[in-house]
Amino acid sequence: MPDTASHRLHPKAPGTAAGIDETLIRSVVETFYSRVRGDALLGPIFQAAVADWPEHFNKLTDFWSSLTLMSGRYKGNPFEAHLPLPRLGDEHFTTWLRLFDQTLGELCTPEQAEVFRIRAGRVAESLNMGLAIRRGEALPSVRRH
Question: What is the CA radius of gyration of the chain?
Fold first, then answer.
């Protein structure tokens, strides 16, 4: 569980007004990535890349806490973390967003889901574009279906 004493939440964090808390973030992360692990397209990529799922859940919880609650806990570099993976493209990110939306629909109020969705869309677009630029490819466009 995060050390909230050393990571005070920002009063203007978008998730605060929507009622997002650390317990919900952890639930979203664990439910979503369980779904990802079982997906035919994404599962094999994640299974090959992640050796320690509890540690990965902690890192992802910190990531989403930083994005939604402005906790500042996440100190990693998502772009660098995804570079060594097999080629990821539109289909991967669209599937990732679809599974994320499904999870949010089950666990969140509409207002909470919207906070997560906006940030997830930005994450997917940024990673997809950044990886394409690094590979010298045409810029992709990630869209929810």
Answer: 15
* Segment 93-134, tens digit of pLDDT: 999 999 999 999 999 999 999 999 999 999 999 898 888 888
Q: Which numeric CATH code is attached to 14-134?
A: 1.10.490.10
Instruction: Specify the pTM.
Output: 0.85
